[in-house]
Design goal:
Blueprint: H1 7-13, E1 25-29, E2 32-35, E3 40-43, H2 46-49, H3 58-68, H4 81-93, E4 98-102, H5 105-124, E5 130-134, H6 143-148, E6 165-168, H7 173-179, E7 184-189, E8 192-193, E9 199-200, H8 203-215, E10 219-223, H9 237-241, E11 247-250, E12 261-265, H10 267-270, H11 286-299, H12 302-326, E13 329-335, E14 338-343, H13 351-360, E15 363-364, E16 366-367, E17 372-375, H14 383-402
Parallel strand pairs: 3-15, 5-6, 5-7, 7-10, 10-11
Antiparallel strand pairs: 1-2, 2-3, 4-12, 8-9, 11-12, 13-14, 14-17, 16-17
Helix pairs in contact: 3-11, 4-11, 12-14, 13-14
Length: about 400
């Protein structure tokens, strides 16, 4: 049996729920990636906002290697030092007083939504169970989280879906006012909608959500799976806005590429998750927690966070310069190093074509829906990589537009 694999093998052995690019990355360093043939790519995708410190960051490699030689897994029948150290660091640097560890953003949100309902039932009775979320939101792929997410395409064919969930318009205070009631146990918001098109929330919208939750004894839940861990230039986006949630979900960038998720909350809310109410076999494993602790240490430095803001401007200026020539974007929006290039009507629905064109030029990009090209690079991407990547993006756009 041959150990050689190609992209064609994907179509033969994998469940067909993904449509990956035509090349297979085999090596990464910083913001550069190489495929099986040795061809180099610049990475503006960041593993979908996961590779917060790029590929194979030497301090993360050293941390993982050191922990791998000590202890991998003991389960939550026991605790472990890396989990406790990470928990302490998270409570020292955020609003949170308690932390629950899991393996992904979907699991972090699943825990958040279960905790919100349990807290509502504990304090106000079982009828306080409604979860409100934004239309066009995304909170994961479990049946519960995909139902809370406000995109019907992700629940088609999977019914019946969980009840007690309703949706309101993002950035629309009046829509939230009309939806919330004393039966609402939680209002769930992404401070920046990621999959929904890289749409930042208005500060007034988040402030109103906080006030309405307080009025109706509902918990405010921020999904910061994509916006957290330095992505906006603050450690978490809620700090950028000055609006504090009751529960926050984190994943993606917190592990720098190693799978880990976390749900952060207050002591009062956490009490509703007593022994046996929720769990995760792999959650809080020593390998993931050791790496995540090092990620947080490195990211939560003024030089890195200030660098995110500077790099944001470098990207925006470069993208706007490209657009001045080719006029393919309606706008470039986002915060920090989570950016969305909204395509003009002439190119609406064709975001994937921009990805394919970029691939030909040696550039890795993302989409956010059908009409937004998304960028979520390393928080420490070098300026030379930004400039070279933008040059490759411009070459891709030039080729794409010339074919019209």
């Amino acid at each position: 049996m041959s150990n050689t694999v190609t992209r064609a093998d994907f179509d033969q052995v994998m469940v067909p729920n993904y449509g990956p690019a035509g090349f297979i990355p085999v090596k990464g360093l910083g913001s550069r990636v190489w495929d099986q043939s040795g061809r180099e790519f610049i990475d503006f995708a960041g593993g979908i906002a996961v590779n917060s410190l790029g590929h194979c960051h030497p301090q993360l490699v050293a941390t993982l290697t050191e922990q791998a030689s000590k202890l991998w897994h003991v389960s939550n029948v026991f605790t472990n030092e890396p989990a406790l150290k990470l928990g302490k660091l998270l409570t020292e640097t955020t609003f949170a007083e308690r932390v629950f560890f899991c393996n992904s953003g979907a699991e972090a949100n699943e825990a958040a939504f279960k905790l919100a309902r349990k807290y509502g039932s504990d304090h106000f009775g079982p009828e306080k169970n409604q979860i409100l979320a934004c239309k066009n939101s995304f909170h994961g792929r479990t049946l519960f989280t995909v139902s809370v997410g406000g995109q019907p395409k992700y629940t088609e064919g999977f019914g019946p879906v969980p009840g007690g969930i309703a949706h309101f318009e993002y950035n629309d205070i009046e829509s939230l006012k009309a939806a919330i009631s004393d039966q609402t146990c939680a209002v769930v918001i992404e401070p920046i909608q990621g999959e929904g098109g890289v749409m930042p929330a208005d500060k007034a919208f988040l402030e109103a959500a906080r006030e309405l939750c307080d009025q109706h004894n509902a918990l405010l839940v921020f999904d910061e799976v994509q916006s957290g861990v330095g992505r906006t230039g603050s450690l978490f986006a809620y700090q950028e806005y000055g609006v504090t949630p009751d529960i926050l979900s984190s994943a993606k960038g917190i592990g720098g590429g190693f799978p880990i998720g976390a749900m952060l909350t207050t002591e009062k809310v956490a009490k509703s998750f007593g022994i046996g109410t929720h769990g995760s076999t792999y959650g809080g494993n020593p390998l993931a927690c050791a790496v995540a602790h090092k990620v947080l240490e490195l990211v939560n430095e003024p030089a890195v966070l200030d660098g995110v803001r500077a790099k944001h401007q470098r990207f925006v200026d470069g993208l706007n310069a490209i657009n001045a020539k080719y006029q393919v974007f309606k706008t470039v929006r986002g915060m920090g190093l989570l950016l969305g290039c909204v395509l003009t009507d002439a190119y609406a629905g064709r975001a994937k074509e921009f990805l394919k064109a970029a691939e030909k030029q040696g550039l890795m990009l993302l989409v956010a829906g059908l009409s937004v090209v998304r960028l979520a690079p390393s928080l420490v991407i070098e300026d030379k990589d930004i400039d070279e990547g933008l040059a490759r993006f411009e070459a891709a756009i030039a080729e794409l537009t010339s074919a019209q």
